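Q&A FORM
Asked by: J.P.
Topic: structure of HDIG domain-containing protein

PROVIDED:
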Amino acid sequence: MQKSVKPINFKDQAKSMNFEENLHNNPIFQLVADSAKELNISAFVVGGFVRDIILNRPSKDIDIVCVGSGIELAELVARNSGKEEVNLSVFKNFGTAMINLDGWEVEFVGARKESYNRDSRKPVVEDGTIEDDQNRRDFTINAMAISLNADNFGELIDPFDGLGDLRRKIVRTPLEPGITFSDDPLRMMRAVRFATQLNFDIHPDTFDALIKEKDRLEIISRERIADELNKIILAKRPSYGFMLLDSCGLLQLIFPEFCALKGVETEDGKGHKDNFYHTLQVLDNTALKSDDLWLRWAAILHDIAKPATKRFDKKKGWTFHGHEELGSKMVKPIFQNLRMPLNEKMRFVKKLVRLHLRPIALSKEEITDSALRRLLFEAGEELESLMILCRADITSKNGEKVKRYLRNFDIVEEKLKDLEERDKLRQFQPVITGELIMETFGIAPSKEVGIIKVAVREAILEGQIANNLESGIPFILEEGKKLGLAPVKIPTI
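REPLIED BY: S.T.
REPLY: Here is the structure written out as tokens.
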């Protein structure tokens, strides 16, 4: 049931809500108001822009709802703007239009009311009033509107006490939550996303509906689910979102591999860490250092194969041998299931999952130039990202142990920096190429060419030869001799 709440005048509360400059000084609002008046229709600022201004969060997107044609209003605003070129995009199938004006993205839509068939998330849409439009909004904090009409310009229309929920830091649906989520199940992911981004609680009734309606998420495309999941991952403290998803049962539906990390087994009095909570801590640690979505995904997946590789050894205790290699192989099917890109972003995640133990191993033992060269060669341009992940992976409750590992990482990084300056291995390309080998021995592409190339690479990484022709030519002549190859043309050094 919609509450009857007297509109609050933002002119009286503007200073405390940091809205005055945006509403009264931003010429876009007056431009929209004048254009709506010219068309003799009502217009309102709605949704996330209102929420974010009240919370003093940065926002460059403005949503305008009008009681009439959103496309007509957008076209008139574009003409009235006085700009020679206005980027106007019209989406007739959806009855919406978007203008990029002075760095703002302004979207226009006519007020609508919706009804749903249970077997589809696509609503039956009809023209409606501003009240109808607010009724169909996902959460109370997104259902507030500001009037741009002459008779009540600047008034907050807040029928569901969204302002109160902002103050209480609560995510709550405007109408009965079971109906809200059943009608559009993606709103369940959005509830968790907003709670995570804003560090809000989810209202108990709303959370109960998440649990009850979770299976409805099956009708939502994986692409849209992944989009919301990625927004959760990009939050300041993404672990909160994962714990909410797990608590309501959504995580098991969308990402069962992650849920498999949960739990601790004990044998002969020896237990291992709970890899679910360890991974969430690694994710949060990574988030403190980087906003890179794909580095955060590497944090999420770095131990994903531990359940499959877990073994108990009476002498060593619990082991997870090979989890980095198997985990790297699991990245692609997980990305495929979530319909995420199978491009260089996925390959970046695969590489970091495969290499995440290497710097840790180096920090425990005497560091050789050979081991450092191999790490530089394999990590390449992703070395900084790999080191962020590895530092984030140190989650022991023993503070002294953490400090010791981090000090060792400092030593590893210094040695890597020094070696990189000398050997330039980030973009390692041996000067001895396959073409040079074929010319030297007068042979076509063959197994022998590959054998010699590998031998050259290994010799350089082991520090046996330098990556230049002076060292390389004598070496390949010797390697060719081992294979019964005689030179037909010795390259000029």
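FOLLOW-UP: Residues 374 and 461 are 6 Å apart (CA to CA).
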